[in-house]
TrEMBL record:
GO BP, one annotated term: transmembrane transport
Family, per entry: Belongs to the binding-protein-dependent transport system permease family.
Compartment annotation: Cell membrane
InterPro entries listed in its UniProt record: MetI-like, MetI-like_sf
Pfam family, one: BPD_transp_1
Membrane-spanning ranges: 14-36, 99-119, 139-159, 174-193, 235-257, 277-299
Protein name, as recorded: ABC transporter permease
Amino acid sequence: MQKGERKLNINKKLILNILLNLIIGFVTLTLILALLNLTPNNFIVLPLGEKSFETNIEFKAIIKNVFDYYETLLSGTFGTSNTNKSIFNFVESSFKNSVILLSFSLFFAIVFGILKGIFDSKREKRYSSNLKTLSTLTVLAMPDVFLILVLQFLAVILYRNGIELVPAAGHGEIRHMILPILALTLIPMSYIARITSLSIDQNFEKNYVKTALGKGASNRRIIYIHVLRNAIMDLLDSFSAIATIIISTLVLVEYMFAYPGLAYVMFKNYELGEIKVVMAMGIMIALLYFLITAIFKILKYVLNPKLRGELN
């Protein structure tokens, strides 16, 4: 295949991938908007025996509300709340808070996850490999809710002993962010550590590493100079899954720690019946997910010389 044809095929693949993601996003958002327009009084009776299909759902009204909302979005605003407040004000502050929380958590998850992965690898022989791996797998096996509850329980114990460094919930001070950042960091960090350690162990079986070992290079030098580069490529391939983990955990963390980000504002306004605010927050959470995945896909093409060569 000619270089120009290969480049054209890659460009087509990228365009199709973008279009597919947009279609999936549009369909998902439309379904969510439709569901949010349902009320507790709505019912559906499915055909059973002599009974026919019955429902009090006004599908035409729901469809009209969905398209009206899209029209509002296309006008460049999120509309107004039931109390005539601009929804953009809700979005602006909560989006900023969520981005701050995600930025710190992603940074710590990547840095400490890679370091933990190196520590977990079988080539780091100063400590028992099974125990190192078990510590990572234990965090991965924990449900998000249980992990958050454990951290809050520890914060309560510290508070009862006169240590108020890490509040169990709330906002307004930097110390209120410590536990949410920790809760949002631990599971992605363990996921990154596991991928890194497996990648390092696999790369040590390759010929170029065996050649370097034969020339007298140390394990540590090989890991940091040669193997880690390939491990980072494997990480970038897995960041769609990591983004899913961190966004789903963000929803729980914000709600359970009463952190005023997108998810917390979304839940609170749902209780108040502010459906338009809820929809705006849901859209921004989805946007955060797509931004994170897009950034790491771009990094993958920038850092991978093979992909750069195909695109040039």
